[in-house]
Amino acid sequence: MDNDMAEPDPSRQRNGVVEGLYGEFTDSLNSKVRYSVSLTESALTIQKISSSPGQDEVVFHLADCLGCRAYKVEDEADVGAFFTAYFYPFKRRWISTGMARQKVEQCFRVALVQDPLTNLQEAERWARAIREASIRQIPRRHDVKYYEVRRPCRVMVLVNPQSGRGQALQLFSGQIEPMLTEASVPYTLVITGQSLHIGHHWSVPYTLVITEHQNHARDLVRETDLSQWDALVILSGDGLLFEVLNGLLEREDWEEAIQTPLGILPGGSGNALAASVHHYTKSPPVWGKELLLSCGFLLCKGLVTQLDLVSVHLASSQRIFSFLSLAWGFVADVDIESEKYRLVGPMRFLVGTLMRLASLKVYQGRLAYLPAPPFTPQNSSLCSSLPCGPNSSPNQNSRHNHITNSNHSTNSNHNTAHNSSNIAITTMRTEPQPVNQKGPPDSLLADLEQPVPDHWTVVNEEDFVLVLAMFQSHLAEDLFAAPGAAADDGFIHLLYVRAGISRLALLTLFMTMEKGGHLAIGCPHLVYERVKAFRLEPLSPEGAITVDGEMVEYGPVQAQVHEGIARLISG
After folding, report:
1. What is the 3-state secondary structure (H, E, C) of 248-294?
2. Are 151 and 135 in contact (CB under 8 A)?
């Protein structure tokens, strides 16, 4: 069916970009159903022409639009062309309460004239206008600065098919690959396995690299030419991102490499960073495939924020970098012991928690930390569109501190110096960084064999049930461990539980942690501190320490935060 099409009003154009369009099209499946479609700067409005005014009108906000494509079917007898817009608005769930993003496609047939080429050009004009308008309507937080996005963005996606329930490949092909295609994002797919394959899907090229050994991703990003990609995206649990970050910081050009934007898509059991990224958008809580869809949406929108990293020193003098957490005691035990229940997905942590509660242990150790300055919300968080802005650097917004030598007694918190931004913070004189050591220097830490600096706080207790240092908001999809945390707040959120807590009280603590209420229940055994660095010295002969969910060598450990040195694809 032919349809009249109004040309755009030249007065409603800015810099050559159409700000308003109106047209009448038929339904893609039923030519007898016609729609009026209008496009503004912020919305696509659709209404059946046969409807009464104001009836059956549907408005789609372009902030929820992932992309739009124009195409022609292979039927030579059909002179029409089509354009399909892909939206992911928040909608109420069918069964449970609450809201989550859900995919909605709007497809229209364009048949202005009997010339197929003219119809296709008109469909392409609409698709281009919708794409351009949706880019300008990327969801924004008021306290974040944005830069123009580079399109298309070249993305390498790394997938571990063994993570979680072993369904990462199905999750990619079933949900993420279509979203990348809808958003017209070219990508390279790296999958841990055993062969090399080149393929194409909907004109989107991808490379399939399969490996079998642990740390393959770490080795790959340490040696690869990063100029080929604008971002690295991980579809796995948190462990694969741990490999990627440490591989980047082992490069000779680590200062430039660590600025490569990193994306996380939940494909493991814990998916803590993915849950944190979703939380930072201030959207309603989601889990499972809804979380995957939310993170896929944020990935395709392509906003980049800063990400804190924490350098962790182990007893063997090895230094690793963490983005998520360090745990000792109950939490570490649950993480390690629940590995055998990996096939049940996130439920493994509930099973592990109940089993560990049945044989609750107390651990002996010493804990000390450097308290953080009083917290003042900042409005200067860097957020750019892919790729990161040319003026950003690993040291951007870093604190330049006066060095002080303290002779005050242990536990004194007053021996501090003020940096150039009038924030009280203390650094100490450190030995020169080894020539072969990559990554930022640690200005807040003494050698592990030396006493902690005098201006640190030493915890008097030596009997603990757990010590947990959080660097993001979530410890798992359903464990909101650090409600006040942000990706780039520059803090370590230190929690510890002293001995003497009952099993019921500890269970209550973790049950309320699902919604972040554990800090408000007044548990006398729970202590929470916001710190810049800490040291933990286990005295119990046996135990486990985990970093980002990965077990590390057991022994003395210390860490300090490096504010905003990495880049995270977020919202």
Report:
1. HCCCCCHHHHCCCCEEEEECCCCCHHHHHHHHHCCCCCCCHHHHHHH
2. yes
Residue with tokens 């030249």: 10
List of residues 6+ apart from 480 with CB closer than 8 A: 279, 473, 474, 513, 514, 515, 516
d(CA 200, CA 97): 39
**What is the amino acid identity at position 319?**
R
- Detail the DSSP E strand segments found in 389-519: 417-418, 424-425, 457-458, 463-470, 492-498
**pTM summary value:** 0.84
Q: 415 or 318: which carries more pLDDT confidence?
A: 318
Torsion (CA) 84, 89, 92, 94 in degrees, nearest 10: 30
Q: What average pLDDT score do residues 88-101 get?
A: 89
Q: Tell me, what amino acid is at 469? A: A
Helix (H) or strand (E) holding 245: helix 238-248
Flag whether pLDDT at 156 surpasses 80. Answer: yes
Give the residue numbers annotated as catalytic, written as ranges: 238
Q: Which residue type is seen at 58? A: V
pLDDT tens digits along 302-336: 889 999 999 999 999 999 999 999 999 999 988 88
DSSP code at position 315: T
